[in-house]
Amino acid sequence: METEMPSIFSAKRTSFVRTSVIREILKLTVENSDILSFAGGLPNPNLLPKDVLHTVMESVVKENISTAFQYGDSSGYLPLRTGIANRLTDVSWSTPEAITITHGSQQGLDILGKMFMDSDTNVLLEDPVYLGALQAFSPYNPNFFSVPIEPDGPNLYWLEEIVSQNKIHVFYVNPSYQNPSTYTWSLEKRKQIAKILDEKEIILIEDEAYMYLDFSGIVYPSVSSFRKRSDLTFVLGSFSKILSPGFRLGWTVVPEVYRSLFTAIKQGNDLNSNQFSQVVVSKLLNVLDWKGHLHSIQKFYSDKKETLVSLLKENLPEARFSIPEGGMFLWVEYPQVSSKEFMDRCLASGVAMVPGSEFSPASRSSSYFRMNFSFLENEDLELGVKRITKVYRDINT
Amino acid sequence: METEMPSIFSAKRTSFVRTSVIREILKLTVENSDILSFAGGLPNPNLLPKDVLHTVMESVVKENISTAFQYGDSSGYLPLRTGIANRLTDVSWSTPEAITITHGSQQGLDILGKMFMDSDTNVLLEDPVYLGALQAFSPYNPNFFSVPIEPDGPNLYWLEEIVSQNKIHVFYVNPSYQNPSTYTWSLEKRKQIAKILDEKEIILIEDEAYMYLDFSGIVYPSVSSFRKRSDLTFVLGSFSKILSPGFRLGWTVVPEVYRSLFTAIKQGNDLNSNQFSQVVVSKLLNVLDWKGHLHSIQKFYSDKKETLVSLLKENLPEARFSIPEGGMFLWVEYPQVSSKEFMDRCLASGVAMVPGSEFSPASRSSSYFRMNFSFLENEDLELGVKRITKVYRDINT
């Protein structure tokens, strides 16, 4: 008795909903374990110290049952918000009250889309841009503009052009080890752009999900920390990469004037964030040797990056990329192949990457692919690069 | 440097965002533990068997680290979806593939609002209606219609009138132990209304969050199970009341034609549901004596209901209510008081209830209050009723 989807029933915004090739590939690789995947943004779950985790779980079940297994404050569990305010943000106004806990930083993006974006809202993105932001914002169908980014941040000439010729309402940025380009804004550009945003009264949505993933342990000051207009500044963070995506927790630092609205939207979305995970993570923040833990993650990612870089240089010197300062990706240009054909043949040969077109608001074709290096074991990184190399050579002979 | 919220920045839909008095009261009672709260919909966290929970946690940390602490399928963790399909839904088409895991059934409501509701979409609600549905749907600003409900379900005369005079797209219902009225649709009305919805091609959003909370252990067949048009039928369920709200997990049974769209919206919202909680709950489903567990919950709620009913009859015979068949609320009419004054003076006297106006799409004033009986200990139920009685008598003398 199934019928074709009756289009009269669906809301207009659904025609702007974007699906994600990454999530489709993730599903594919779950179903077929022979596919080696460079596609996900998957941290390595073994970086979580099991013994600490076990002790924390035990104490939650023993001591926190009435908090951890109940509904909670829509803004989040206060001890967790306090922990974040004390350790994981660098803007002066990030008090515990300013921090709202969300289901991943992704939910922060959805709430901000719902809050700010109508069909006549001008939203500036980086090009390329984090795919999840496109997914969060697209259903609200704003006017997207995009500014090309370079290894040290947005092209300032283009940025000035765009903001002087258009009333831009919101600028969404991912300034540290950007997903997918891996580019990191220089200190100078952070300052300059903060100034431009203040002058033009532009809302900044700064996604700092990778802030603590620098290979040398550097922590760049956020763009937001240079802004005077803190009332127009939202900073998003996430536990997915520094602790585990399994807790599905992130946060947004919300300016005071927008707090009640942000919380009301959060309530409508899902009442409150997972209390059990919030209690566990707040305890983990207290008992983990946090500095040592971050150092071990940074070291792990740095080593994996080295491995993939060497493998590509050795096997496929035609592949072009900048060496990132942090994060979990390489952004690799494979010249002289049709990206569609390359992608399809790689998948058929048991290896997955994300095509660059996914990260373009206009889905523009691109010779770039995003490669994750944090998830596969080293032997699989090697086998994967060999499979890619074979496909590349087959096409180019 | 804070300014007034610049209205040019906020999307138009934000003027329709509804806040919840319940969540505000919840916050108040967290801050001030002297307030006795009948306001929340809070299950009792002690119904969760600690020893089983502890064993499950231990096994998750030992055996499931690579699944539980990673990203996952946007539709949900397959073993959990299978467990739900096998045990917790009664519609014939609820295969594991049909079930999408959400952050509470609340998130299912938000996704369905995003999916179906434009400003010209006619949405029929029950009157009174579950407040969370108003919060989820309101930002999409549909045209709300409402049909009065009676102790055995919607008034059929009004329902026929509304659907024959208007093209209703979506009907949102909560047919078992409704929140807030506690009314439960009769079998006869379930069948008749399923037939009307089929004839008129109306999408049904059936919220069965309380399905397993009957005081005598009866499980009413869902309205959906009587529908022929399964392609226009969504059933929502939740673990919040039968296990714990701390896991923040619910589900939606999604018709095949809408599955990819539903999943794409879920991705945009928050990528996937909390994997850690999904793994824990799927294990709990397997190891708990499920029948015994449900029985003990039903017994607990039934006893608490008896307690509150007796206390009200004894102390304040003016209060009027029907005796519910299940759930966690009484829907109490306090005649001859201004609800605003009564509410304010109750709060000032250290006792909280939710005013009926919260459950009306038009925020219409009402002499009803929703009282939860599952959370307070018996001595506090008694003390609370005494405080309410005193306020009532003070006003009425």
From TrEMBL, chains A, B:
Listed InterPro entries: Aminotransferase_I/II_large, Class-I_PLP-dep_aminotransf, PyrdxlP-dep_Trfase, PyrdxlP-dep_Trfase_major, PyrdxlP-dep_Trfase_small
CDD domains: AAT_like (cd00609)
GO biological process, one term: alpha-amino acid metabolic process
UniProt cofactor(s): pyridoxal 5'-phosphate
SUPFAM superfamilies assigned: PLP-dependent transferases (SSF53383)
Gene3D superfamilies named among the record's database cross-references: Aspartate Aminotransferase, domain 1, Type I PLP-dependent aspartate aminotransferase-like (Major domain)
Domain Aminotransferase class I/classII large: 51-388
Coiled coil stretches, renumbered: none
Recorded GO MF terms: pyridoxal phosphate binding; transaminase activity
UniProt keyword list: Aminotransferase, Pyridoxal phosphate, Transferase
Any Pfam family hit: Aminotran_1_2
Descriptive protein name: PLP-dependent aminotransferase family protein
Native species: Leptospira bourretii
